[in-house]
Amino acid sequence: MVERPFRVLLIAPHGSYRTLPYVEAARRLNIDLVVASQGKHSLIQVYNQGLNLDLSSPADALQVIDQAHQQTPFDYILGSDDATIELAALAARRLGLLQNPPEAARYSRRKDLARERLRQSGVPVPWHGRIDLQGDLLAQGRSLRYPAVLKPLAMSGSRGVIRVDNTEAFTQACARIAAIVARQGEEDEQRYLLAERYLPGVEIALDGLLLDGGLQLLAMFDKPEPLEGPFFEESYYITPSRLTQESQRRIVDRVEQACRAYGLREGPIHAECRVDGDEVWILEVAARTIGGQCGRLLQFGTGYSLEELVLTHAQGAAVSLQRGEGGAGVLMIPIEQGGILRRIEGLSRASRIPFIEEINIQIREGHELIPLPEGNAYLGFIFARAPSPAEAEQALRAAHACLNIVVAPLWRGLSNQSLPTASDMAQCARQ
């Protein structure tokens, strides 16, 4: 009898930029990957030939997964994004498959619940509290300790995150974030915000794999730009980190401590931390891979694509890393001005900068650019590989300096109500 291939169900929002890399990795590893999404009428093959779920109704989605499992069993269930990791955990528990507990997955995507869980578990956390957007904002603002940071309860990529330094800025920021979360997620996620003390220090990102609660470090990234607000747009990711080995060890220890507090034990994690002297503060630990195209940096740091590592881990196989020499980095080209993108000048000159490997523009001319905190897309990505992390960062800065992004004002009116946004374009590019 021919042994059937290992079968994985990937639950992904329609249009997720993580889907195609997983499909390609599964093909290389001879894994039977089924994509579950709201893609019944999608023009994209992996969605319309996959499992159609109503992601807004977990009970209905679980029933569909049960039926599919009875016909051909799944060996592993994986959530691609914050919006699907909890459903994946629920489905895995229901089918008796290895995965994180559903409550742990929920902590990893809900900032308010995560903060309380860390506090209860003895992990250092800043002062924090919930803001009721339907309550007396002026009174709530007067009770805050400034500077503070306001965050939606369940969004990623710094969308809706605003630093406020006084009560006036607080009330203005609340109105702005309320418009962003108005149609997002659950009722609590539309009504409440997380407020917490602003944390000084440098920001670090970490990606790893959990195996029976033990953390295997895949990569640690420096974020050399000061992220001090009022918005927190990430730009440069550089690896390997140039922090001291002692600092890196403290970061890994603190992330492991947070994973234990949440109850996370299996699969990929992406952590964001602030390091201030000897103190390491957890910003978030998400039970998923890194966002955007930044996962490509894992190829440099490990010798494998990030998705190959996750799927190899799902099979229960040991992941052996092949560390690259030198340094690598990515610049997520920020959207600094809203309006209509007319053109990007200097791309050829930027691509000739030594150590630049690729420039990938995601948004095309004629489409709307929306900066943070409302926006949730990048103009594109620049990748560099160099003999050292410092030279990789220098190359990215030099390439960015070559670019002249020409933006025209956007006049709102009947004629442009249907203009595609940056988010729309980014989603098309990812597909």
Tally of domains:
4
What's the total number of strands? 19
Measured between the Cα atoms of the first and last residue, the distance is 37 Å
CATH topology term of the largest domain? D-amino Acid Aminotransferase, Chain A, domain 1
| Name given to the CATH architecture of the largest domain | 2-Layer Sandwich
What is the 3D form? globular
Give the overall pLDDT as a whole number.
Answer: 91
Class by alpha and beta content: alpha+beta
| Major sheet attributes | 4 strands, parallel
Annotated CATH homologous superfamily of the largest domain: ATP-grasp fold, B domain
**Helical stretch count?**
15
**Cross-sheet strand order for the largest sheet:** 3-2-1-4
Which consecutive residue ranges, at least 5 long each, have pLDDT under 50?
414-419, 422-431
Percent helix, as a range, is 25-40%
Oligomeric state of the chains in view: single chain
Task: Tell me the strand percentage band.
Answer: 25-35%
Radius of gyration (Å)? 21 Å
